[in-house]
Structure formats: C-alpha cells, structure tokens
C-alpha cells in the first residue's frame, strides 16, 4: 500500500490516518465537515488535497447508516481500487450497499474493536488500534486484492485481523459492546438526581461500571439504531436475570427463613455465573485470563510521582501487569493499585517499603 483515503475524520478515521501516515502512507482526508478534515490534517493525519489518481484503499469512516451512501459516492468518483469501512455494525451497511448497486467485489466490511469515550479528530491516537481485534467481513465475491488490502491496513495499524460473518459479528458486538454501553448508561442514570452525599461516596467500583457512560449519546444512537433488534434481545435476557435478582433480594429482606435461604441461593447463583463469564474474557495478549495479586500504594498528587513508582517497580525487577488509581475525595492523595504476578508480591512490597513508599494492606 502506498496511498489511502479516509472519508470521515472522526476518532476512528483520524486514528487510522495517523497510523498510516506514521508508516509512510500518503493519506487523503475527506469529511462532510471541512473543519474536521482540516483539523485532522493539522494533526499530521494527511492532506485535504484530492488524489490525482485512484488510491490503493479508501476507508469509509462514517456512521453505519451512511456507509452505503458514502461508499456509492466514492465508487462513482473512482476514489480507490479497494474499499472498506470501520462501522461498528456490518450486516445493515452491506445490505444498503447491495441495494444501492455498489461494487461489492472491491468492498469489504471492517470494524476495529477500539475506541474512547471522547469523539472527533482531536481525540484520535495513532496507537488506538495496537493489539486490538479488527474484524473483517468478506463475502463470496470479495476479491483477493481487496481482502489483502484490508489485511495490510490492519497490520499497518498494529491490530489483529479476525474474519467473521457479518451477522455473527453483529450478534457478538451486541453482547460485548452495545448492550454493556446501554447498561453502563442505565447505572449512571441512577446517579443523576441522587443525593450529593451518596455521589461523594462513589468508589472505584461504580467508576469502573459507569466509565463508558461518558460516551457521546448522538454517536451511540447511530450505532444502536443499526443493531437495535439484536441489542434488544441481549437486554431482554438481562432483564430476566434482573427480575430474578430483584425477587431474590425481596426474599432476603423478608422474615421467612425459607424465603431468605431461597434469596441467598438466587443471588449466589447469578454472581457465580458472573464469575464464570468474567473468567472467559481473554487476558494479556489474548491469553487465558491470569489472576494477579494487587499491591496498593498511596502516592501524592504531584507531577512525576506515578513515574517514580513505576521506576521503583522496574528497579525491583517486577513487571506491572495492570494499574488502576482510586482518587481520595477531598485529599491530595491517590491509591494506586498495581496488578502483579503473585510470585512477585513479597519482592515488590519489600522493595517499596524499604524505599519509603506508603504500601497499604
């Protein structure tokens, strides 16, 4: 690949453009909003000039409902030799492309499984896709040239290609992305009019559950509209479990011993099922999940403190597998939770205590 076009310079389109330009690809940028394209260009994502000849690959980075229309326009103009998109839903855009008479032999659906709570070109990052799955949904008439172009795009962005059927993809993302987004928003909505005292008690648990609730509702409405039926199916199953949990909790709150025992069994059952489901989520580098020990260290809210802590861990010969920070309300201190291999716990704690760090139990 020598040249590419990115049509739509939001978070995903601009991130892909930044990744490609970093690898020496000439990238041409387009957007219905010229200011967005110029912003992306100013970040080093490419140029807003028109290509003098068809590019090797055009990346359609627009909402799912617009993919078919934009693809048809790009092909009418002869923008590229091959085309892909990055929409988070695949079956609908493909059907629209077919209905509009698009050349589907030189088009392959794609979906990088990456994103952020922020949107727009200013939120873009060249490393957004590194190590992330990137789904490709070829059809029986997809040419080898087009498939190879899409695979090269995935490789240049540092992602991992996953080839799937479009319908299977939409069912999968409803389960692991779209329904969780709505559920996070539903939990966060409970806080909108909650007593201020209750909100101030928020800890890491509610922060984890509601993190993605900060996402742009307009962007998600486009996504959910394109996959509404499948997402509704997932939420309907969740609603059954929620009603069961409500019934179990009512039994626990009652006076009858039999009812309380039934409630205990119901809550324990759903939580154990949750344990089993969470354990299936791939761990580091896609390997089976690993159970780490957590070392909690209090640090001051000053520049360089976190970096100094990481250097101390490196000096002790301990690899930090994951990190989370719980900020203390009203205090200039944070609790850093370092996830490390169980065999390294004593080694790290001893080294940090020796160097004066406040290690918490």
From TrEMBL:
GO biological process entries: tyrosine biosynthetic process
Domain of life: Bacteria
Keyword NAD attached: yes
InterPro entries: 6-PGluconate_DH-like_C_sf, ACT_dom, NAD(P)-bd_dom_sf, PDH_C, PDH_N, Preph/Arog_dehydrog, Prephen_DH
Enzyme class (EC, first level): oxidoreductase
EC number: 1.3.1.12
ACT domain segment(s): 294-361
Designated name of the protein: Prephenate dehydrogenase
